[in-house]
Amino acid sequence: FYAHLSALDRDQIVNTIASLEAYEDEVTPERVLPGVTTLLNMLPTLPEKECGMLGFNTQTAVNRVVYRLVRSQKSETFVEGLVQNALPLLETAFAKLTLIQMVGHREGIGDKLVPEEVAKKFERTWRSEFRGLSADALARESKLLYSFLTANQEAEANEPAAVAPADARITWRLLLSARSESYGQAANSYAVTKSTYLAWDDLINICGTEEILRQRIDELRAANFEDCDELLQLADRYLGGWRPKRFGGK
Description:
By secondary structure, this protein is mostly helical. It is built from 13 helices and 4 strands.
């Protein structure tokens, strides 16, 4: 399955994955594990794009197919075993979190495909593993901010906080995963404008204070990474007090 998808042209691969939704009723049990692990492991390498008539982005398109694979056998026992077998094969903390949340009971996220206590056990284990990740492992995560927020916001009372190390690579990943874009059209104009934002309050939450976040950004600047200038300029705007209008700024 991996070899087949990897051989596709990058302009076709996301649409091809999205088209697999239509074959949910034809999935046999032995195809579920390789399908789920292949798709979730490939996700960070896939091009970001909208696909299909409904305009799903890459992550949504992949998640929809994974979800249909997971639920295809209509059995809690099967899903529990699938998750247990898949987690060691998934290469990133975010891939593991995606699968765990998909089958769990979190409001608005999970579809309750396993018993609630089983879901909580998966979540506790994931948080423990995430807190123990090395700086090298964290620096390879593409959705690092979301993972840190989840680890801390869903932690039980006896669990320590997940702390982001003072490492320029990790700061870079946090900023990248905090960035979002929106598109708009000015009145009396056909021109489409793009605006870029940072989840600034969430970044402060993970770093502890805005001053610590400033220090981390200065360390990132000193590291002189390639393709970092635009993101640093955006961060500097926030450090200077700018906030987008949708958050009450100017």
